[in-house]
UniProtKB/TrEMBL annotation:
Gene3D superfamilies in the record: 3.10.450.50
Signal peptide: none
Stretches assigned to the SnoaL-like domain: 12-105
Organism name: Streptomyces tibetensis
Domain of life: Bacteria
Name listed for the protein in its UniProt record: Nuclear transport factor 2 family protein
Length: 122
């Protein structure tokens, strides 16, 4: 079992790397077979997950973490997702860690603001 501190640090590093656009650091945190399910899509494997993070990263301005809770191998991060295309979006991210790598991610938020913002861009 991964310690709570390690899971917390991994979650913190994940969000910092994504906010900074450091996709090599993100790659090192994700298991090869990471499974992602979110409001805007799904991804199977590290390459698909990174592609999704890069895609949203193109409009990402800031991740304003409100609270992070960890228990065992689980971390939940509640944050406001600030983008260039929509008002801040309250978001919940759950991740599961095994052997020091993120193996599962589930993200939920109301996607209407982001979808409308993407439409305006096109």
């Amino acid at each position: 079992m991964t310690t709570t501190k390690t899971v917390r640090e991994l979650a913190e590093t994940y969000f910092t790397a994504w906010e900074e656009g450091d996709f090599e650091a993100l790659r090192g945190l994700l298991a090869e077979d990471v499974d992602f399910v979110g409001a805007l899509g799904t991804a199977s494997g590290v390459e698909e997950a990174l592609a999704g993070l890069r895609g949203l990263g193109q409009v990402l301005e800031k991740i304003d973490v409100k609270v992070r809770v960890t228990e065992g191998d689980e971390a939940i991060t509640w944050f406001d997702l600030h983008t260039s295309v929509a008002p801040p979006t309250p978001t919940a991210n759950w991740m599961h860690v095994e052997d020091g790598k993120v193996t599962r991610i589930r993200v939920t938020f109301d996607p209407r603001g982001l979808l409308a913002g993407f439409e305006r861009q096109n």
